[in-house]
Amino acid sequence: MPERMSTTIVNDVLRGGGDRFVYLVSAMAALNGLLFGFDTGIISGAILFINDTFPAVENSALIEGIVVSGAMAGAATGAALGGRLADRIGRRRLIMLSAVVFFLGSFLMAVAPTVEILVAGRLIDGVAIGFASVVGPLYISEIAPPRIRGGLTSMHQLMVTIGILSSYFVNYAFSGSGAWRWMLGAGMIPAVVLGIGVLKMPESPRWLYSHGKPDRARAVLRRTRQGDIEQELGEIKETVERESGTSLTKLLEPWLRPALVVGVGLAILQQITGINAVMYYAPTILESTGFGSAASILATVGIGVVNVVMTVVAIAYIDRVGRRALLLVGTAGMTVTLAILGVIFYLPGLSGVLSITATVCLMLYISFFAIGLGPVFWLLISEIYPLAVRGSAEGVATVTNWLANLAVALSFPILTANIGPSSTFWLFGVFSAVAFAFTFKLVPETKGRTLEAIENDLRENVGVGD
Questions:
Q1: pLDDT tens figures, 321-351
Q2: Is 16 part of a structural domain of the chain?
Q3: How distant is the alpha carbon of residue 11 from its chain centre?
Q4: pTM above 0.85, yes or no
Q5: What b/e readout covers 368-404, taking b as 16+ CB neighbours within 10 angstroms?
Q6: Would 247 be classed as within a structural domain?
Q7: What does the pLDDT read at residue 17?
């Protein structure tokens, strides 16, 4: 009875409209982020025990890096395909496809008899992660009204952090038995939830209009907006007609070049500042400070909690203080905490107080990332590109992000083995300082603007007329 009542309430909301409807379908789309976070975070604990099953992983920093970074290689491929697929088959269908691929990848990893099959599963899972990283923010940014778009689109990043935190809990739950197959296979459960949830979601109104379905686009806008929708519909119509027949090469035109630079630049900087080296290897990093395997994973749960809490803070302020302010504060804080981490790991004999200090410093680093580069990057790349190439252009930025992610995940064990953890953290700190300067100089403010108004700003800045 309670289950039937819950389903009835959800169906009633979905049949209705307004903000409640927008929040609900945005939350469903953001499940992409939960899977994205879960399937990237789960390897951090599993790798401690995969080493025991496959000695080749334990004996080679390169093979360990390949197992961890296999999902990143798949994600780059998924993002490259996902942008075009989002424009071609629609945002909603791509969400469904990502759920199916997530399930297949998680299943293959759980039953992998060899390292090669495990890496294949990671690659397949990564393709789904790439799909999710493109289509989640894209769908939400197009379904949400401008006044709450920032917070709702950032919900995707919140779900990423919740997914990561969930993976840490799963890792800890199975750490006693070292059951890494159960850790990796647990991703099948949220994949099924996403596949069911997407059945109730409407398609993006902007995609519908651009594919010759104006009546359906109007119907979706009526359900997701308060008041008159004709002005926004007119803006969508104008941009669709103006950009009919455009292609990805349009991004190379002078008026769009600033958006391309910002998207690709932030994509690279988000990764080379070290966030996923910390996310993928946090238990390994903490284990090197003197913690045991279970204690390292438990401490990582604390890091995950901080990540979620600070992402909530970012969502609360992103539509108030703006994107640039959060980016500047976040990158400045990351620079300082990475510098301190480098000092801590430079000191001999890490134990006791230094171990705790390192853990606190990692939490502060995550906090600054979670209020800045974490949510703001994904929000900006869903806002700054024109409708005609939005999915594909977001795909370009996302592919770049995953390639940078791959490079960091693959190189981190090698860097720490050759130049040491202190120099590695200092290197990430230098890149964080570069991210601060890049933001200050080039990143625009998009708070409170319609997507069409942001596009018009790009045109006017270089004198491009209609």
A1: 888 999 999 999 999 999 998 888 887 665 5
A2: yes
A3: 29
A4: no
A5: bbbbbbbbbbbbbbbbbbbbbbbbbbbbbbbbbbbbb
A6: yes
A7: 52
